[in-house]
Amino acid sequence: SWSGRRFGGICFGICHGAGDARVGPFPNPAHGGQPMALTMDLPDESATLEVGAALGRALVAHPAFVTLAGDLGAGKTTLVRAALRALGYSGAVRSPTYTLIESYSFASLTVHHLDCYRLGGDDELDALGFRDLLESGASVLLEWPERVPEKARQADLRVTLTYSGHGRRLEALAKGARGEALLLAWTAEIR
What we know:
30% of the residues lie in helices and 28% in strands. The strands form two sheets. It has an eight-stranded mixed beta sheet. The chain starts with a strand and ends with a helix. The chain is globular. It is α/β, with parallel strands linked by helices and 191 residues long. The chain has six helices and ten strands, in the order ββββαβαββααβαββα.
């Protein structure tokens, strides 16, 4: 059973009262249950940065393919920037809207950050060598997954950021064992 764990006003577990997030120990889909999911309200940019940093720390032990969906300005690149900072990157992190792919190598992990906004579909992503990125054992953080729907369906973890009042709502859905392991590690890293 999950206990209510507090983090700056964010509650993990089955929350009662004013809790802002829920992580469910849902049954594994292989056993006929629903996939594991996380829903969390992020009241400001600092909360997004802290949650992004936790994602970066979790990726070290659990490299995965993660999609990041949301409207322009919803916080996708902010989340990636925080993850990369937690891994030790100190340079500028911008959305790779024009370069399409930015790769970052660390001692323990390589992260490929992709922006598919300008792509016309899955074939264009294939032409960029997407399969090689997935097979490399690196983590792939892909923005605008709706532009490449066939590839996006392969994601281990699907993250969606939406506007919620003055803040954002983060929803994450794990797929398969890799996604579940990452989601559990991510929530454990959130302090």
